[in-house]
Amino acid sequence: MMKYIVACCWQKMHRRMSQWQSKSFTSLLTCISDDALRWDSNNYASSMGHPKRMDSALIKSIVDLHNSIVQDKLQIPGFSSSGLPKLAAMCQRVRSSQREEGVRVYTKDTCVEFHQFVVAVLKGYRDALMKWQKKYDVAKKAQTGKVQWGHEKTAEYIELRVACATDVYNFGHLLWRIAYSQALRDHLELLAANQRIAPPIYAHYNEGFYTRADSGDGETAGQDRAGQEAEEEAQELQQLMERGGVVSVYQRWIQLQVTQWAALDVLSSYSRRAAISLQGADISISLLSMNPRHRGKMKDWRVMIRQLVRQRLTQTSILHDNITSALDAEKVIGVIEEKIQQNAAPGAHTIFRKFEKDCPDLYCHIHCEAVLAYLLKYADSALIPKSLAYEGIKVMSHLPNTRGIC
Fold first, then answer.
1. Which domain holds residue 121?
2. Taking the CB of the first residue and of the last residue of the chain, which one, N or C, has fewer CB atoms within 10 A?
3. Are 122 and 262 in a shared domain?
4. What are 356's strand-pairing partners?
5. pLDDT tens digits, residue range 103-116?
């Protein structure tokens, strides 16, 4: 069960890094030369104001990484044997300073190494996820009998999966520290001020405009995404651009890649505080996994509204002996149809374009709140083996000993 939960989580991370936007973002960042950064930083770095945060977590990660490379002679793809000398030295300086001094990680002297650091972590994280996915695909073939192997092959597979998982964790942890840092914000603002970055455009990606050498796979441009879905995502990027600018677009893209780490941090922090306030009370944690649903068509939304209104009128009648609601289903439908017509033009939010169809296609994702509500109401049936509810929802109250190989 634990294997299924972890696999789904990491598959989602792999899909995010494999999307056309991620390939394009990575390519655009990789194409920026060290000489261009040195030129840009001459005027911009001196104009930076007082930093809003000291990036303590990022500082520790950079110093530990540098020491591992230089002192422990650890060879990490994308990093030279000299590590990050200027960046690590500045991190040590910030660590020993006071907040009032305004010493920052990102400066004119560290901007090149910081950029190299960000690009190396992005590539390392992407490549580690790709290797992990390939091993996972092999395991699925073995489970279905398409690939045959014995105990020795299984042991070798587990060892390789552990190595891949370790790389995903290490690079993912570094990317998480980067994603919410003041240093990343400073770097993106420097790049934006000198017009070194721009939001990726799907048409350019589809034409092979972005460098494919750093895409991380052998696909031809446009092969990995359905055209309509990719165009909708491109529109969402444009909306983000209009609301927050190119800096926010890049920052939010990087943060999206590490949502699992951020969520785990929130839960861990809450659990620690709860344990302290409850004076060491035994807190049991259960894992709940929803079986994935296939793509399907939504029911006719007009019919659904009519059913909901009829249900509400019936309940009102039962409770009050008379119908007090003046809700008119046809008027509600008319208002929604008017909104769809007004906002379905190209460039509007994609949800309006989807509802131009009577029964739009949907990828059926079930939200955790809906699952918890279902459990509250149908707890008995959800725990009966082989029932429909049980097959849809798996509940697990403890972790097996095999969780480390996932």
1. 2-277
2. N
3. yes
4. none
5. 899 999 999 999 99
Ranked by mean pLDDT, the top range of 266-270, 287-291, 363-367 is 266-270
Contact 182, 52 (CB under 8 A): yes
Could you tell me the two tokens for 262?
A: 């951020």
Looking at residue 395, the DSSP 8-state letter turns out to be E
Sequence-separated (6 or more) residues with CB below 8 Å from residue 402: 2, 3
285 within some domain: no
The answer to whether residue 286 is domain-embedded is no
Find all residues with CB under 8 Å of 127, minimum gap 6, and list them: 77, 216
pLDDT score recorded for residue 403: 32
Please indicate, yes or no, whether residues 86 and 234 belong to a single structural domain of this protein: yes
Together in a domain, 211 and 335? no
Alpha helices in 259-300 (DSSP H): 259-277
Residue 72 and residue 17 share a domain: yes
Asked if residue 241 and residue 112 are part of one domain, the reply reads yes
Do 160 and 244 lie in one domain? The reply is yes
Q: What is the domain count for the chain?
A: 2
Give CA–CA dist 327/346, Å, rounded.
32
Please tell me whether residues 83 and 231 are part of one structural domain: yes
Angle at 135 between CA 265 and CA 28, to 5 degrees: 65
Q: What is the mean pLDDT of residues 362-366?
A: 62
Cβ atoms of 217 and 88 closer than 8 Å: no
- CB neighbourhood size of 296 (10 A): 11
**283 falls within a domain:** no
CA 87 to mean position of chain CA atoms: 27
C-alpha–C-alpha distance, residues 131 and 348, integer Å: 38
In the structure encoding, which two tokens stand for residue 180, read together? 């919410």
370 and 266 assigned to the same domain: no
CA distance 256 to 275: 29
| Per-residue pLDDT tens digits for 294-338 | 566 677 888 888 888 887 666 555 445 444 456 788 998 898 888
Distance CA 181, CA 184 (A): 5
